[in-house]
């Protein structure tokens, strides 16, 4: 199984999927799964921009909306977690995880899934050493 791992795509799904297609064509391989390790930015519409945690100069629709609306379909199964730059209103709707768009799965705020013969776990959010042990006894 061949995995691609992407960090902080910031909603640029078209660019990432084009890069995967390029790698597949030039190396004659097939990517089976894309893992996105935060800052996915699942922005569906203009209203989602209100909850996007980024400076206003970086607020752009990018391309996730095309996959959400069904105009495009992710060419490779995609699993992602949330980071600190997200459209949080949508991810709250999928708190326990779920399909954010066809072929694109959000692991939730904490989740584990099985893909083929591997287990994949993830935690959304950001690490803050100050808060790490607040719940520890």
UniProtKB/TrEMBL annotation:
Signal peptide: none
Calcineurin-like phosphoesterase domain: residues covered: 1-112
GO biological process entries: mRNA splicing, via spliceosome
SUPFAM superfamilies in the record: Metallo-dependent phosphatases
Cellular component per GO, a single term: nucleus
InterPro entries cross-referenced by the UniProt entry: Calcineurin-like_PHP, Metallo-depent_PP-like
Protein name stated in the entry: Calcineurin-like phosphoesterase domain-containing protein
């Amino acid at each position: 199984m061949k995995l691609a791992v992407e960090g902080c795509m910031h909603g640029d799904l078209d660019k990432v999927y084009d890069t995967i297609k390029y790698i597949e064509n030039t190396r004659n391989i097939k990517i089976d799964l894309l893992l996105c390790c935060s800052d996915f930015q699942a922005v569906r519409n203009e209203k989602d921009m209100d909850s996007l945690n980024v400076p206003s100069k970086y607020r752009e629709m990018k391309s996730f909306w095309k996959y959400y609306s069904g105009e495009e379909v992710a060419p490779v199964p995609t699993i992602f977690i949330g980071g600190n730059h997200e459209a949080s209103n949508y991810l709250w709707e999928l708190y326990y995880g779920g399909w954010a768009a066809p072929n694109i799965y959000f692991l939730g705020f904490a989740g584990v899934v099985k893909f083929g013969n591997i287990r994949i776990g993830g935690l959304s959010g950001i690490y803050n050493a100050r808060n790490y042990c607040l719940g520890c006894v």
